[in-house]
Predict the structure of Protein YhfH.
Amino acid sequence: MLENVIEFFKNLPPKKCTQCGEKIEEQHECYGTTCDKCNHL
């Protein structure tokens, strides 16, 4: 069963920023929806 969960997260598409549309360089399963530029970090 653990392998199924790991495969699920491996196969998620890259997240995109909800403001500018750029790919977010972080784990896909995290809750953030904006990139560092749009977060002014």
